[in-house]
Write a structure and sequence with these properties.
Layout (H helix, E strand, L loop, with lengths): L14 H5 L2 H18 L2 E14 L3 E12 L4 E11 L5 H8 L13 E4 L4 E5 L9 H4 L2 H10 L11 E13 L3 E11 L5 E11 L4 H13 L2 H4 L8 E5 L4 E5 L4 E2 H4 L5 H16 L7 E3 L1 H18 L4 H15 L8 E3 L8 E3 L4 E3 L6 E3 L2 H16 L5 H18 L6 H22 L3 H15 L5 H10 L2
Parallel strand pairs: 12-16
Antiparallel strand pairs: 1-2, 2-3, 3-5, 4-5, 6-7, 7-8, 8-10, 9-10, 11-14, 13-16, 14-15
Helix pairs in contact: 9-13, 10-11, 10-14, 11-14, 11-15, 12-13, 12-14, 13-16, 14-15
């Protein structure tokens, strides 16, 4: 069942209230894209807003998924749409300019549309205004030709030659990122296909990909990684022209997808030990993730809440004041390499071992930044009803205890708890504000308040205390 997004009545884009009705949204899209759909004897049956990014008075971005049926009511599939709502009078002008561009043909309907009553421009996947390199990813023939011309860029060595290709979408977040899996059939010079080589391609903006590849390559070459102290996909190469990073495709699934169906404390215990191996790898990276950096993020998050959801500003400001007050009592700690986005969607499990992905933002900093980030994600799962309080305590305790057993460094639990509380505000609460998910926001605030007061739970603290020498 699709999550229902609640739109505040005082929202700066009042059309969102109408768009939250999936059938009204479907009717509007059908009207603007109707000619091409009718020609194919198709219609948009319903359309849900999957995700929303909102900046009052400026713009609003929407990720939408439409269910497509034929004229007999039979299900045909789904179409992803990326919508951008602009201030009054600006949408139509931009739409006119966009019509001069070339677009890829989507699975259903037209590639571009404009809903005038809502001042919304709509792009149909695989068209995206922010990711031009997607045009290569979604055309297998172009990827195959690239692999044949530059096999080493795709991790192909020893004279093997790619001859066939099959693709599948890995992840698409409209306006932000896109990634595909490619199964390349490799052959020797005699032409006989001998094996499949699966790679992962991910789009980047501007020079972000070049920097990400450089960092990932450094991490990959550390003895800790080569000796399997921690596991990560091998980065093969970065195509600066297409802005695509090619890397090893790993098996398994992200913990974000399977958390409720696995022995989570056991898996997080392994993750804790492997994170310690990464932190202790001796790698030197540019400094970023410090206590001061996190306090600045806290300030920005509170300002965003004040601007977007002022009814929750006082509660967030109180959390900020408590975090600032407790930060001064935290003793200094030696910096290590830090992943920077250590959450469940970046931890994979393949029934045998744990892998880490998306080291793009790795920098030097406080190791508790990563520890707290994962615990904050557990808090998010609790707020969403995926885990109860006891399960969160048990999972967090297993993770922290394994980390502490694997490292010779002293990592004060009070510091871990502080970062967990601050990440709840800077990441989970901030995202709930951007998505206008008020019910989730209230639950996250309640958990964060309990955590910043030090009430992580008796079982959690008892388990941690037993693991501390």
């Amino acid at each position: 069942m699709a999550k229902q997004i609640k739109i505040p009545e005082d929202c700066g884009f009042p059309q969102l209230l109408e768009m939250s009705d999936k059938h009204r949204l479907a009717a509007a899209l059908q009207e603007t894209l109707g000619e091409s759909l009718r020609a194919q004897r198709q219609r948009i049956y319903s359309c849900n807003i999957k995700r929303m990014y909102y900046k009052p008075g400026r713009r609003c971005r929407l990720n939408m998924i439409a269910k497509i049926r034929n004229e007999n009511g039979e299900k045909l599939g789904e179409q992803i749409y990326y919508g951008r709502i602009l201030p009054s009078g600006k949408g139509g002008k931009l739409f006119q300019r966009l019509q001069r561009k070339n677009f890829l043909t989507p699975a259903f309907g037209a590639p571009l549309g404009f809903v005038p009553q809502w001042e919304m421009i709509v792009w149909a996947y695989p068209n995206d205004p922010n990711m031009r390199s997607m045009k290569t990813l979604v055309q297998p023939g172009k990827v195959l030709a690239r692999a044949q011309a530059q096999p080493r860029l795709f991790g192909i060595h020893n004279g093997y030659r790619p001859t066939t290709i099959a693709t599948r979408l890995a992840k698409y977040v409209p306006g932000k990122r896109c990634a595909y899996f490619f199964d390349l059939g490799l052959a020797e010079h005699d032409g006989a296909a001998i094996r499949t080589h699966t790679i992962f391609g991910k789009t980047y903006k501007a020079k972000d990909g070049e920097a990400a590849y450089a960092i990932m390559n450094k991490i990959w070459q550390t003895p800790a990684c080569q000796n399997r102290g921690f596991r990560m996909p091998q980065p093969y190469g970065y195509d600066a022209n297409l802005k695509i990073l090619w890397q090893e495709a790993i098996t398994g699934r992200a913990l974000a997808k399977i958390a409720s169906g696995i022995a989570l404390p056991n898996v997080l215990r392994e993750a804790g030990g492997r994170l310690a191996a990464f932190h202790d790898s001796g790698l030197r990276l540019p400094e970023l993730y410090t206590l001061d950096f996190q306090l600045e993020k806290v300030q920005r998050a509170v300002e965003a809440v004040q601007h977007t959801a002022p009814q929750y500003a006082e509660a967030c400001l109180t959390l900020q004041q408590m975090l600032v007050a407790t930060a001064v009592s935290l003793a200094p700690i030696a910096f290590t390499p830090v992943h920077g986005s250590f959450k469940f969607s970046h931890i994979f499990y393949d029934e045998r071992e744990v892998w880490f992905i998306d080291f793009d933002g790795a920098h030097q900093g406080d190791p508790c930044y990563d520890l707290g980030r994962l615990i904050a994600y557990l808090g998010k799962l609790q707020a969403e009803g995926e885990l109860d309080d006891a399960e969160v305590q048990h999972a967090a305790a297993s993770f922290c205890a394994a980390y502490r057993e694997a490292t010779p460094r002293l990592v004060p639990q009070a510091r871990v708890n502080w970062f967990a509380s601050s990440h709840m505000l800077t990441s989970q609460i901030y995202k709930a504000v951007k998505s206008l998910d008020e019910s989730l926001l209230e639950r996250l605030l309640a958990i964060a308040k309990k955590w910043v007061e030090g009430s992580f739970g008796e079982k959690y603290q008892e388990s941690i205390n037993r693991a501390i020498p």
